[in-house]
């Protein structure tokens, strides 16, 4: 079942495509229109490769054991389903697949990580929508003349990798809200994107003082999360001793 996982092949496809497209000369000569086009082309290739590889693995290994996952998603969203398989019922009843806890948002908001993440996501999504809108109404040629070359500082903030990562984090965030265990995938993405937002302070405090600030924030968040992780590990050990499986709060 792991071999046919869409998430697994999505990440593998992402590494392949981003590695092929990564080039300093390619990025530095981008204007805003070409930057968006390049990011959309990469996303299209990633989705195409992901679906192709997933289907090939399913056909090659005759895997059809993940159909209950889609039933699980429908059940979580409250969509009508014909029948509820036993495997899906197990997922729904297990605490690890419950909706995300409010404590996660409290802990990530305390030191500003989640708000900064949301700000960066809003800025980048707005950037993408803006140039897609302008490109649709004014055409690529005229828009290219108007935007010309992106300034170096703006190019460092708005790049293909961060646009892709934010798109992936939005999808992961939706899954994490619906399924508690996915927060362990979403949290690192929140941290990376939030730290990317600190680039705006480079011209005021410099690169290295910014790193000191980031290390301090990481230390504060780690100490705050440590007690929670200890409690979760203790719960897992208790559940294993009782033979009840693994509990994730």
TrEMBL record:
One of its GO terms (cellular component) is nuclear inner membrane. Keywords: Glycosyltransferase, Membrane, Transferase, Transmembrane, Transmembrane helix. Its main location: membrane. The chain crosses the membrane at residues 6-23, 35-57, 114-137, 157-178. One of its GO terms (molecular function) is mannosyltransferase activity. It is found in: Membrane. It is a multi-pass membrane protein. InterPro entries: Dpy-19/Dpy-19-like (IPR018732). Belongs to the dpy-19 family. This is Uncharacterized protein. It comes from Panagrolaimus superbus. The lineage of its organism: Eukaryota, Metazoa, Ecdysozoa, Nematoda, Chromadorea.
């Amino acid at each position: 079942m792991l071999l046919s996982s869409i998430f697994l092949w999505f990440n593998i496809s992402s590494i392949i495509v981003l590695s092929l497209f990564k080039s300093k000369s390619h990025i530095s000569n981008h204007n805003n229109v070409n930057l968006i086009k390049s990011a959309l082309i990469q996303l299209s290739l990633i989705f195409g490769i992901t679906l192709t590889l997933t289907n090939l693995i399913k056909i090659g290994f005759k895997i059809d054991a993940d159909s209950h996952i889609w039933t699980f998603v429908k059940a979580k969203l409250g969509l009508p389903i014909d029948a509820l398989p036993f495997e899906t019922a197990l997922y729904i009843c297990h605490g690890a697949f419950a909706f995300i806890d409010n404590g996660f948002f409290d802990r990530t908001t305390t030191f500003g990580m989640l708000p900064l993440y949301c700000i960066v996501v809003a800025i980048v999504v707005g950037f993408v929508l803006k140039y897609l809108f302008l490109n649709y109404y004014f055409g690529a040629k005229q828009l290219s003349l108007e935007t010309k070359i992106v300034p170096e500082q703006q190019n460092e903030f708005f790049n293909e990798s961060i646009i892709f990562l934010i798109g992936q984090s939005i999808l992961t965030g939706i899954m994490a809200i619906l399924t508690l265990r996915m927060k362990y995938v979403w949290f690192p993405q929140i941290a990376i994107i939030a730290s990317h937002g600190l680039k705006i302070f480079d011209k005021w405090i410099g690169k290295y003082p910014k790193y000191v600030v980031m290390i301090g924030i990481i230390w504060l968040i780690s100490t705050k999360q440590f007690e929670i992780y200890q409690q979760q590990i203790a719960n897992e050990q208790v559940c294993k001793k009782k033979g009840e499986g693994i509990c994730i709060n």
